[in-house]
């Protein structure tokens, strides 16, 4: 009976890992990139990064964004320079926009929140010294990621009107006209007993050590995102995220309960079948019942208008 219990446990652990992967968007495995990605156009990379440099502090980025906001109000203020009342009103609007940037700062210090089930959930790790600022641009939202107090990554989510109904392959072709030929990365998807190979992302690099990737977030958010990062810092943080994801799969509450060393006065394997077929404990991001919702944070970090009900999820 003990051998039977251990054998069934081993089978269950394999199935649990597969089901967990399937629940996260149907991904079974993502291929590793083969060799270095192609070098992107230096001009296009420079335009995308703009004035931001890796290593900038949170305050330096806030100051840059504040200066950009002031520049945007300059023309409006010039038109009403002889109307003190309107000038005061517009200056209050400008101050509110600048304060909004400061208030968007979030530190990922271990407390799970809305960002852990959001468009940037795959980019963060709690308790890893990371923080983030959010800034709304005319046709996109830009997320600034800091390791310690040092900028190392920018994640840009394009607005829906930029995507304009294009498939990820079509949008990727458009981006390759800007940045040059990319390295495609595919994922193997298993759904309803069928296997398929789908484009997961496109990769580029710069001669200065930047990484650039185009990622598909259309399943839940109907947008595509372009991420640029300092490759060495991103790889260290990505390894932390991978290790923690593996830990969640292999040390979930069910497995912990089955392999517990707690002593009792009964045969430790006499209910192994019941435990294996017991109720599944869902983790954030897995399929939910019809009464549960996922709140998508607004750029200010507050839960807002975007609320996705489970029956709306694929």
Q: Can you lay out the helices and strands and say which pair or pack?
A:
Layout: H1 2-23, E1 27-30, H2 42-49, H3 58-79, H4 84-103, E2 106-107, E3 130-137, E4 140-147, E5 150-158, H5 160-163, H6 168-179, E6 183-191, E7 194-205, E8 210-217, H7 218-221, E9 223-230, H8 231-250, H9 253-258, H10 272-276, E10 293-297, E11 303-309
Antiparallel strand pairs: 1-6, 2-3, 3-4, 4-5, 5-9, 6-7, 7-8, 8-9, 10-11
Folded structure, characterized:
This protein is an alpha+beta fold and 314 residues long. It folds into 2 domains: 2-23 and 251-276, no CATH class; 31-57 and 104-249 and 293-312, no CATH class. Helix content is 39%, strand content 25%. It has 10 helices and 11 strands. The chain has helices at residues 2-23, 42-49, 58-79, 84-103, 160-163, 168-179, 218-221, 231-250, 253-258, 272-276; strands at 27-30, 106-107, 130-137, 140-147, 150-158, 183-191, 194-205, 210-217, 223-230, 293-297, 303-309. The protein has a 9-stranded antiparallel beta sheet. Strands 10-11 form a two-stranded antiparallel ribbon. A hairpin with a 2-residue loop joins strand 3 (130-137) and strand 4. Helix 3 runs antiparallel to helix 4. The radius of gyration is 24 Å and the shape is globular. The model is unreliable at 1-28, 253-297 and 299-314 (pLDDT under 50).
């Amino acid at each position: 009976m003990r051998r039977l219990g251990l054998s069934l446990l081993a089978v269950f652990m394999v199935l649990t890992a597969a089901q967990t992967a399937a629940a996260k968007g149907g991904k079974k495995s993502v291929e590793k990139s083969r060799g270095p990605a192609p070098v992107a156009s230096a001009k296009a990379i420079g335009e995308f990064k703009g004035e931001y440099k890796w290593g900038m502090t949170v305050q330096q980025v806030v100051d840059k964004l504040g200066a950009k906001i002031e520049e945007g109000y300059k023309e409006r203020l010039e038109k009403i320079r002889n109307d003190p009342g309107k000038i005061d009103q517009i200056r209050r609007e400008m101050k509110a926009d600048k304060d909004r940037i400061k208030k968007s700062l979030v530190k990922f210090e271990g407390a799970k929140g809305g960002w852990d089930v959001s468009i940037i959930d795959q980019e963060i790790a709690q308790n890893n010294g990371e923080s983030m600022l959010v800034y709304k641009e005319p046709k996109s939202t830009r997320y600034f990621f800091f390791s310690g107090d040092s900028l190392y990554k920018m994640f840009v989510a394009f607005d829906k009107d930029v995507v304009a109904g294009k498939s990820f392959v079509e949008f990727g072709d458009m981006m390759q006209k800007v940045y040059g030929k990319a390295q495609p990365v595919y994922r193997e998807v298993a759904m309803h007993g069928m296997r398929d190979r789908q484009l997961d992302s496109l990769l580029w690099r710069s001669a200065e050590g930047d990484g650039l990737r185009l990622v598909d977030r259309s399943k839940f958010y109907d947008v595509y995102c372009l991420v640029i990062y300092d490759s060495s810092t991103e790889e260290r943080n990505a390894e932390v995220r991978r290790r923690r994801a593996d830990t969640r799969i292999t040390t979930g509450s069910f497995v912990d309960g089955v392999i517990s060393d707690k002593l009792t006065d009964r045969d430790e394997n006499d209910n192994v079948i019941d435990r294996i077929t017991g109720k599944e404990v869902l983790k954030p991001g897995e399929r939910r019942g019809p009464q549960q919702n996922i709140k998508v944070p607004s750029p200010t970090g507050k839960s807002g208008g975007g609320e996705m009900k489970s029956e709306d999820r694929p």
